[in-house]
User: What shape does this take?
Amino acid sequence: MLDYIARAFLGLAFASLAAPAGAAGADTPPDVLVKNVTLEVVQIIKSDKEIQSGNRRKIVDLIEAKVLPHFDFSTMTATAVGLSWRKATPEQKERLTQEFKTLLVRTYASALAAYSDQKFDFRPLHAKPADTDVTVQVRILQPGSQPVTLDYGMEETASGWKAYDVVVGGVSLVANYRTEFANIVRAEGIDGLIRNLHEKNESLARSGEQGKK
Amino acid sequence: MTRGAQILLLALAVAGAGGCASVPNPDPRDPLEGFNRSVFRFNDAFDKAVAKPVATAYKDVLPNPVRNGVRNFFSNIADLLIGANNLLQGKPEEALTDWGRFAFNTTFGVLGIADWATDMGLDKHDEDFGQTFGRWGAGSGPYIVLPFLGPSDARDSVGTVFDWHFDPVGNHYPVDERNAAVLLRVTSQRADLLDASRLLEQAALDPYLFVRDAYLQRRRSLIYDGRPPRERLPEDDAPPAAAPGG
Assistant: This one.
């Protein structure tokens, strides 16, 4: 039974792959953006031996250069935190966003290291030209398994299209943090959530230094 | 009585004993959280001690093409029941695809070891009895973590009993061949999840909640075949909302 969740979760590996890349201008349609970046990042991974052997630093650099500019982390964090977001001070919001971003980037980094030749199927975009909020659909094809679906919720901003959620195999990444975050905020307040995220990131950083596995 | 039913009874017995433990933030979808968390810890300990090391060894020892063959072999057998479930859900075209896959892969793919059907555009589906019952209108009932099997809910637990009852591998005799096959299948599945389970450990602050919420989202999506009614996340509503009937 765990396979449903875990397989969906592995799709995270490709969530970062399929995020739109820097090569595109602000007026590039969102589906084209997703496709360009996916193929570009896959190409980089395939040709870089150090990334394949698990060089964390290089993977994080790749994510920061190609992927991060196209995610709206502030909206993602706000949605994951839910109701309490309104009560947070601007400084708390800033720190929450920073810590959540760090956590997601680290997760992406290990997901990317697991990439092995999966193929992508980029679905045609169902949207009207005037739409400013669309879902870009990608499928990851693997023999012997049902394709993993990747849906990007994307919104048009002044600086181009930005992803505000990734839905992997029907599981919204942002929604999946809501209960966890809400429970921590209820027990320990917003600062408690910041502290928890920070400690999690610190411990991941330590274990990352000790060994690549 | 099938093994599935026995495990269910065991689970319910333990639930009766341990389900009263109170939790700080009760969730209407998970009234058994206290009990579920203990089973989750048990499963995790079992996984760390047995399942994960075996799966890791399997992955280290066998080359990729062999593991692909094993995965395809069991996936091919599973297409039989997937087709039956699609038929029960009133989707005859999908059922034909599943059985077409089985016919094609069993012959040209040499007993299903190669999955040529996917290359020909016959997509693999993911169906089981839990989804069929959901399609028929059964609500999910409370979330439940089954010993060894992991996340489930009341409806899917019943579905699992049916899945096992009709499982061609589980009904294969002699018994020692069956046991070996079941063991190989579980090992292969666990090995495929090694990367994913590591990710899970990294991403989650509270792995129990992370797995639970992912399971509930995932099952809902599967029942609608990946097209559940859209729920745009409002930034301001109060989590956790009670789940709609599934």
Remarks:
- The mean pLDDT of chain B is 85.
- Residues 31-61+142-225 of chain B form one domain.
- Chain B touches chain A through 57 residues (CB under 8 Å).
